[in-house]
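Per reviewer request, we include the raw input and output of the structure prediction for the construct analysed in the revised manuscript.
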Amino acid sequence: MGYYEPYRGSRRNKRRKLHIFLLCLALLLALLVGAFFLLQEHIVYTDDGKIRFDFQKDDQTAASQPDSGTDTGTDTDVPLVIGGDGTQTTTPSTETPTTPETPATPETPAAAGFTAALLTTPQEVLAGLTLPQGYDALAVTVKDENGLCWVADPLSAADGTAADAAAFRTALSQLDCYKIAVIDALRDPIRPRTVDRASACKVASGSIWLDYNYVSWFSPYASGTGDYLTALLKSCTDAGFDEVVLDDFQFPTHGKTDLISYAGETLDKAAALTALADRLRTDGLTVSCLLTEKAAQGGSDASAGQDAAALAKSFGKVWMRCQTAADAAALQSSLGESAVALWLTQTPETPVTAAHIVAK
């Protein structure tokens, strides 16, 4: 019985077309990958997330490169003279080189009638710092925002004392000037969370409170805080300092401060901070504090617990950050006979970073 053999021509054509399609797709992908590697250095992502190609870079680079046959040396500016015998000589240019003008030295607070103190670091003292002309006092940060101490640490906190602290104190003793120590007083990332947890700001559960930068703070209410600062002031006296400026002498204001528990305390913040200031008065050492911007401009900062007049009365002197000496005039007037110190921020016009002035 005869039969018909199945027709397979159509199926073979389909397979051939599929193979051709896949081959073309592979070639296309290979071309795209190759193009990407060749052009990737020209791809630029715009601010709105779009992609564009920038080919100007190579053009500008090529334009900026001198031609290989061009002499780019300085001799091209020197005149060439051909003598009668055919020899070639060069004559130097007679033009006088232009000397850059020396910028005028900005006026220091000392020139304006103030006692000027140069704010510096222990490392610069170790490097043999000498006071520039116009300065008659030195302000050194001896306990910084990282808790590193360059004078004797009363709490002997681990990693809390600089390795070159002893050498720094020796170098400091060689400087014959009025010396001001600047210390980060109540903000401390080391001691309140390690060796003196009893004096730390805490939450209601008793855990150590940390600010937005994960830094712990001493509580102005804690008696141990006063003990620690009193001992630190003595360390500054022993190191040869004439004055100590307490930076961050305030209640914490950055972070979830509403979680801090001051349960059982009867004094408000301003009264507590002023009481701590009274306790820190030291015979033979001028103790002062740096006001917050709000306290300096408005006289008080309730959240920080600073009352400028009360602190000036307790310490006899307060500091404020400002751009010029004139910025302190209003505060000086409101505080009367209390001394106002000037903490001048560095600007191109005023390269002085610290200055102080006693009351007139």
